[in-house]
Amino acid sequence: GQVVAVSRKKVVEPAAGGLGVVAPLHAVAEWAEPNWADLQLGKPDAAPWPFRILFVGVNSNEKADLNLMKEYEKIVTALETTFGKSSTEKPSLKQIPYATWNEVLKEIMRYHPTVLHLGCHSDTAEGIRLFKNTVQPESMIDAIRVWNSDAREQGRHPIRVIVVNACESAEHAKTLSESVDFTIGHCASLDDDKAIDVVVINLNGKT
């Protein structure tokens, strides 16, 4: 499989023969800030710190082909390794399993995450498979935009990053980039272990 990252409509394509912006969760890779002028983009506002991650795990086919707890625990381990278990600088992580899109929206309004991480199934034609329904990303954009606008007006934190850690999710990530600063998706099918080992967030300028 390959990973595609989209930064405010600018697509970061995978390198030839490689995985693009990807590394095992245990790896540490320094992040160099891009030249925003070269990208014809304004520098994004600083993210809140410590930021919040909302992990939504849905195995829509009820088969044991997605190890969502393992994926969640890998993120927990990455955060604890980078910041320490009890650090006040460590980003917070909340998990909601088997949620519909409406339930995800309600949790967004309660939790105010900066990162929305979707661990699920998807395909290019049908959409993103959440609990009991498959959602087209076009139908998610308006709700995210409304929430982000309201959050900024109320001095709360909007969603800045959406990770769709699912097969064939690259086009969905590109679509969702209309509503947030940065999105990540997969260009093709991949097995669960490889999906779990993909870096899905930047941690303190490292991956």
Q: Would you give an account of this structure?
A:
The protein has 207 residues and is an alpha/beta fold. 27% of the residues lie in helices and 22% in strands. It has five helices and ten strands. It has helices at 68-83, 101-111, 137-153, 170-176, 192-196, and strands spanning 3-7, 10-12, 52-57, 92-97, 115-119, 121-123, 127-130, 133-135, 161-165, 182-186. A seven-stranded mixed sheet has the order 2-1-10-9-5-3-4, with helices on both faces. It has a three-stranded antiparallel sheet with strand order 6-7-8. Helix 2 (101-111) runs parallel beside helix 3 and helix 3 packs parallel to helix 4 (170-176). The longest helix is centred in the last third of the chain and has 17 residues, at 137-153. The protein is globular. The protein starts with a strand and ends in an 11-residue tail after the last helix. The model is unreliable at 8-30 and 199-207 (pLDDT under 50).
